Amino acid sequence: MPNEEQNYLAFLVRFWQIRKRGELVWRASAESAQTGERKAFADMDLLFSFLKRCTEEQARPGDGKPAVHHSVPAEDASKGGRD
After folding, report:
1. What global pTM score does this model have?
2. Alpha-carbon distance 68 to 26, whole Å?
3. 68: left (phi over 0), alpha (psi -120 to 50) or beta
4. Structural contact between residues 29 and 57, judged by C-beta atoms closer than 8 angstroms
5. Could you give the 3-state DSSP secondary structure of residue 29?
6. Which region, left, alpha or beta, applies to residue 45 given φ > 0 means left and ψ of -120 to 50 means alpha?
């Protein structure tokens, strides 16, 4: 039976709005429950791409070690908002 930790991901996802050029836009962050690492995202597409990549990496057969997750490059989501 595979190691359950390898088949489990948990993120605390936060959303907030900031004003950019007079319009409200959404920002997001995702914090790994396993590592505590937090990534900020300038828009929802970048957040969803990151989560998709994490699940795809997790699903790859490997050497039995948990996958290392890398952030999708994003502009600084904290500008003008909170991180």
Report:
1. 0.65
2. 27
3. beta
4. no
5. strand
6. alpha
The pair of structure tokens assigned to 80 is: 């003008």
Cα–Cα dist 73/83, whole Å: 16
C-alpha to C-alpha distance for 45 and 69, rounded to whole angstroms = 17
Tell me, rounded to whole angstroms, the distance of Cα 53 from its chain centroid: 9
pLDDT digits (tens, 9 = 90+) for 16-37: 999 999 999 999 999 999 999 9
| Backbone φ, ψ for residue 49 (5° rounding) | -65, -40
> What gap in Å lies between CA 26 and CA 55, rounded to an integer?
23
Burial status of residue 47 (CB atoms within 10 A of its CB: 0-12, 13-18, 19 or more): buried
pLDDT per residue as tens digits for the range 4-21: 556 889 999 999 999 999
β-sheet with 11-20: strand ranges across: 11-20, 23-32, 38-41
